[in-house]
Amino acid sequence: MIWQFASRYFRAKKSTNAINIIAWVSVSAIAVGVAALIIILSVFNGFEGLVKSLPRGTQRPLSR
Question: Is 1 helix (H, G, I), strand (E, B) or coil?
């Protein structure tokens, strides 16, 4: 039922062309936003793995 409702606006007639354009722009914006979030989270997970794999404590603390 949801797909029927959405397809009604995506395949609209000439009289509702503005709604058709707005619908496509909004769907495209949501798709770009979701893709950006997925890419950013993947990059952050990769950096987390890189930071965890770096050796820690390679320099001894200075003591008197």
Answer: coil
Residue 57: alpha-carbon gap to chain centroid: 36
> Residue 30 above 90 pLDDT?
yes
The pTM for the full model equals 0.57
Provide the token pair at 4.
């029927």
**Alpha carbon of 30 to those of 1, 15, 47, 64: distances in Å?**
21, 25, 26, 59
Residue 59 gets the label, from left (phi > 0), alpha (psi -120 to 50) or beta, of beta
Q: How far apart are CA 59 and CA 26, in angstroms?
A: 53
